[in-house]
Amino acid sequence: MTALAASDPHVRVRVDRAVGHLTLDRPRAINALDLGMVRALAAALDAWEHDPGVDAVLLDGAGDRGLCAGGDVRGLHDQVVAGDVRAAAEFFRAEYALNARIGSYPKPVIVFADGVTMGGGIGLAGHAAVRVATERSRLAMPEVRIGFTPDVGGSLLLARAPGRVGEYLALTGESMDAADAVYAGFADHLVPAERLDDLRDALVSRADPHTATELVLLFDETAGPSALQAARPWIDDAFSAATVDEILERLRSRPEEAAHETARALDALPPTALAVTLAAVRSARSLADLRAVLAQEYRLVMWFATTQPDLVEGIRARLVDKDGAPRWSPASRADLPADTVERAFAFEPDLALWTD
């Protein structure tokens, strides 16, 4: 194995025979991404794209808690509070470019979404060629819970989920186990965590560089029944409604207790994030590809970061003061301006930060 100099201390970069191996190495933060980590991952992919000695890329996370808990939202909080919009935009631009790169990379990218894989972690794992979950996996796009909206291409994955599962996952932020993730299209295979080392060895020692998927299948175990699939009758009925208020009405009219629990959970979430997120997932269904979705998400996240107090407040309540008592603005869906979604989608950030 050849260890290469990484441009960030939290990313380990090496080549083992024909496999470029990237490991997120910030276990105390469940490998949460900052700008330096994003740039280090991108630089490695750039270096390996035309390297004849690298046939495939493996991405995993250090520690046993998860692949990646998401982006460094506390850092985002500090940037927004300080009025440093450019720093926030720079991070999103780099992160989204990396997500798009993974989705179109010409060599197989294999990702072990073991443990917590949320938010920015979905951006790394969800667009890879081979996506491996384990019995410890917990995948989610929980952005709405902090007054934000799913990004990193997550709205495209949500849009492509069966039925109205995408709307359900987007609005509730609920996590998926491996069975749910495979069913919803966020993962391809379930491999027991204790077999991941064996799978790494097999990927390194394989004779045919084009058989990463076939090799993973040798370790694949059939995922158990998906709770999401079982819940489809009430999820599809409720989350096909046109608005958040109508979704809540349908949930409350259902006989299932799970539907009532979901309604209670939605009542506590920020009206602005719920309305914009519902529209974003549905809009993503009509967009051409991942890059188009990322461009839409960039507009929306910059709208939240530069105009909406809910993002700072949500991060404060959950991760800074940790009082669990966010004060949303507005607090009631009845007070949400009728043109909120229209304004969010019409927002014009400095698009040069995305395209240059």
Automatic annotation (TrEMBL):
Pfam family, one: ECH_2
Assigned keywords, A-Z: Hydrolase, Isomerase
Domain Enoyl-CoA hydratase/isomerase residue range list: 19-345
Protein EC: 3.1.2.4
GO cellular component terms, semicolon-separated: cytosol
Entry GO MF terms: 3-hydroxyisobutyryl-CoA hydrolase activity; isomerase activity
Catalytic activity: 3-hydroxy-2-methylpropanoyl-CoA + H2O = 3-hydroxy-2-methylpropanoate + CoA + H(+)
One BP annotation, GO: L-valine catabolic process
SUPFAM superfamilies named in the record: ClpP/crotonase
Origin: domain of life: Bacteria
Gene3D superfamilies: 2-enoyl-CoA Hydratase, Chain A, domain 1
NCBIfam families: PRK05617.1
Cross-referenced PANTHER family: 3-HYDROXYISOBUTYRYL-COA HYDROLASE, MITOCHONDRIAL, 3-HYDROXYISOBUTYRYL-COA HYDROLASE-RELATED
Protein name as annotated: 3-hydroxyisobutyryl-CoA hydrolase
Organism of this sequence: Microbacterium oleivorans
